[in-house]
Amino acid sequence: MSVLISNDANLDTLLSEDEVRAITAHVLAAEGVERDVEISLSYVDEDEMHEINRQWRDIDRTTDVLSFECDSAFDEDIPLDEVLELGDIILAPEVIARQAPGFGNDPADECRLMLVHGLLHLLGYDHIEDDEAEEMEAREDALLRELAVQRGDDPSKVEVGPITNHAHD
Description:
There is one protein chain. By secondary structure, the chain is of the alpha/beta class. Helices cover 42% and strands 15% of the residues. The chain has a four-stranded mixed sheet with strand order 1-2-4-3, covered by helices on one side. It starts with a strand and ends in an 18-residue tail after the last helix.
C-alpha cells in the first residue's frame, strides 16, 4: 500500500502521516483489500476545495472531503502483480476543524472520520439512497471504534452522527 500525501499550502493536517497510513492500512485490511494499492491524499485550503467541488460536482460551495475513485480494489481484470490506483481523497482541514465541534468531535477525530469516509467511497460505498447511507455510516462507526482501540482510546467516546445526505433530508 502506498499513500501519496500532498500539502502544498502547508496546512495543519490534523493527523500525522504515520496515522494517515495506519488508518488507511486498517480500512483496507478490514474491507478485504489484499492487493497492492496506491492512494493519493491531498490537503487543500477552503478556497481550493470550493473550486474543486464546483468544477467536478457542480456544487458551488466548499466541503470537507471529496473522493475520486480510479480502479476498483476488487477488479479481477487487473493483473494481481499490478499496483491499483485506488483513487484520490481531498481533505480540507480548515473546514473539518471548524465543523468538528458541531458534531461533538475534536478536529483530529473529525479528520479521522473524513479520511475513513473518503476511503470507503474509494472502495465503492455510497450514500445516495438512505439504505446505502445507513450501511456506510455503520461501517464508519465500526472502523472508527476499532481505530480508537488501536490508539488506546475509549471506543465508546467515538462520535459518529449522520454525516451523509439522506434522500429525506
